[in-house]
Every structure is written in C-alpha cells, then in structure tokens.
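Pinned message: reference record for Universal stress
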Amino acid sequence: MEPKMSSVKQGSHWKQTSNSLCASNGSCYDYEGGLVQNLRQMEGLNNMYNSSSDNVGVLVMKKRVMVVVDQSSHSKHAMIWALTHVTNKGDILTLLQIVSPWRSEGCEFSSPCLATSLGSLCKACKPEVEVEALVIQGPKMDTIMSQVKKLEVSVQVLGLNNSHPTLLNCLCLKNSTEEFVEECIDVLECLTIGVRKQSKGVGGYLISTRWHKNFWLLA
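Predicted structure (tokens):
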C-alpha cells in the first residue's frame, strides 16, 4: 500500500506496567534512568493518563512523528529509529523530503520518488502506522518550522551522521549536519530528537535532545 496524505485519526496507546512503559508493539522501556523517563518529563505525560476505572494505567496519545529524509544513510537510520521506537498503532509518520529552491530537476530533487518509496517501506514494515510522504521545495529550516506548526507535529526526528561525536567535541569541531540538528533542537516548538546510529562494533543509537546530548540507547 502506498503512503498517503490523510487526516488524523484517533488511536494508539501506551500501557504502564510497574516501572516500564510498554508500547502496543511490545517494546518496553524502563523509567528508572532511561530515555522514556526523559520523554515523559519533556512531553508532560504524567498529566495525560486516563483516570477512569476501566482505563487505569492506559495513556491515550495520538502522535504525529515527522522525519526529514534525503539520500543520506543517517536520515534513513533516523526514519527506521522513529518507526520502531516512537510510533505506535494509529500514529502518523510523516516523511518530509525538502527540495532545494535552486535545484529543480531530477528525481532526487523534485519528484516524490524518494519519500514515497521510503514511505512504502515503512508501511510494509509497520502497517498499523499511517504513513504520509511530503515533498516541499524551499529553504530547509523554514520548511521544517512551517510544517511542524502546520501539521501540529508531536515529535521531530533528525538524523546525525556517524562521525565520532567524542572526537569532534574534543577538537571543538562540528559538521554542518550536527549544527543544523542542534539549531532545530533549540528552535522547534515540538520535541526534537537527533539520532545517530552507532558503529557496528558498539551498536545502538546516540540520542540528543534539548535536555540530553548523546544519550546511548542500546536497542
């Protein structure tokens, strides 16, 4: 099934079991010092639990998760991480492909083939998540900011390349992608997460937010 442009539907939930938060796909995360504790604090999830007797411990939450995609491997890693770690049944995953204003020819830059093909892959992997592909021409930051506001994005996920963060920090150097992601984390109104896939020898992901930088998630 092709990814589609559609309106928000009611859906998904998280279930609380002791000290863990379990998604509908079976993934569970520990509150005690884990990433979910930080996400709960950031999003104010403590105030969103349904207090009715027949829904005790169930958090009803509809999310729109947006990922900026391009031809780079790190953007695809971010997309996969968002699909497997952030989205649940009924959520919307928006894949945003931004076309530079001065580059208007060719499939890579002007047609929806990249976003659509990635969207089809996401839909095949997780059919319970609604997937939409957007291709918009314009300045990168302005486009992201406008779409976050227009679509009422809950979580923005951005890929970071695999250059070693410790070495870059020691040398006081940052690549352009890292600087851009940090700017998005600072200025976007929604929860914004930078995702860096670790090397094969280490595994997992390094997660950066406004509150935490290079948080190691071994999953």
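Pinned by admin. Summary line: The chain has two domains: 10-61, 63-217.
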